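Continued from yesterday's entry.
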Amino acid sequence: STRKTCMRILKFYYITLLRDPVSRYLSEWRHVQRGATWKTSLHMCDGRTPTPEELPPCYEGTDWSGCTLQEFMDCPYNLANNRQVRMLADLSLVGCYNMSFIPENKRAQVLLESAKKNLRDMAFFGLTEFQRKTQYLFERTFNLKFIRPFMQYNSTRAGGVEADSETIRRIEELNDLDVQLYDYAKDLFQQRYQYKRQLERMEQRIKNREERLLHRSSEALPKEEAEEQGRLPTEDYMSHIIEKW
């Protein structure tokens, strides 16, 4: 009974981190190239897994290790394409992995809008390319403090890949929905960040004003009375701040 009560009061939040689509795609290619697979992923949608016809494999054998970037890009069934939109969107709106459910253009638009909506509805999301701002937003959203500041590492596996402009353009085409989502996410992220910053500055101004008023009221009292009264308002004020946070 106690356990059921505890379960009822738990509140869960969906959060996610997005990454620049080109960097993310190249990183996944390098990951697959080293032998990674997603064989254990069921890709459940509307209570069922996709058929082999709906989701054909990109390779034969146990894994796709050693595949070239060109081979990776050439597979039309590669789930790396627009992965971020696919994982954020409600796939049941487009018939899951059944590509004949609705026309391709309509499918793409529905998926993108669904991903945007779900991103907006999340209590928090961050961007890999903006680690410090991501940390700030997380801390301000959930009233938590990390022990150490987030570090911005730009020397990633994807960063070590030399790709010409034509290859980059091809990756952007394959991930057009992810590119659109990421542009949208950057704008929304900045809005949320600026809002939290403004809120913090406003709270700090209120705090400073209250402290000044408290200091002045203490100075206006006789010394003994000020000492006695000076302690209590401070405790009340701290309680107010704790409740507020």
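--- second protein ---
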Amino acid sequence: MEQYLQYVVNGVQQGAIYAIIAVGYTMVYGVLRMINFAHGEVYMLGAFVAHLCVINGLYGLGSDNPPAWGIAAMVLTCMAACMAIGILIERLAYRPVRNAPRLIALITAIGMSFLLQNLALLWFQASPKYASVESVSRSLSLGGISISLGQLILLVSSLGMMFVLRILVMKTNFGRGMRAVSEDMGAASLMGVNVDKVILGTFAIGAALAGAGGAMTAAFVASPITPYFGFMPGLKAFVSAVLGGIGNIPGAVLGGLLLGVIEAFVAGNPALSPYRDAVAFAVLILVLMVRPAGLLGRATAEKV
């Protein structure tokens, strides 16, 4: 029984990362009906910013026991940097093709993904980099279940960010504008909603969350960082968003957590662990065969 509970804990921790990236996909799709395939690369750049903070000893991170405020400042720095990157991506790449055919926007998104990968390869080289914070690597044990302090911080922080985002979307003027644009961009504009501002803010928030996810994964899980660091997590986060219902923020969170738990159980089975990635996509296919709109998504009629 303890073994299965450990799988659940590991899966929820990994799923929280998928969820925090998936929210960015689903927010952009919700307002633009477009998939930002460069989102995984923003996650990767967040990890590289964390690496720069650690190797340069910013916020006391060069010491063996960095202060808690220094770790928080590093995550906030990564969020701010990725927010700026998200704004640049929207202004330079996506806004000019907003009214173009969907295929043009899709090609632009894929091209931006490759551009960011290759820029990271140029600046940081292909050798793995690290941003691990040793003070959060110690393990905590509760009833036979083990989790590192870093993983616990990552889980709590990710879920906390999801909660704050939910309040932002449901309780603020910006959130109401976002929901209005999602329902009908033209009508929202006629009602006085600044559509450009809403879309720019959506990209900025999604990029900031991806940056936080990349920073926390690099620092707390000690994952090696390469220019391809965001490819598979970004792809699985997209799967999570579709699984939960693309365009639905709670659905993205549910899809991420569910996918993480499924992966943890598959990884714990020696016979199935080599097929961990394949199982994730197989689950997506099975769910979409039953519910094409995803677990929490709503089927919508499209005018022709």
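The longest strand covers residues 139-142. The chain has one domain: 1-290. Will compare against the first tomorrow.
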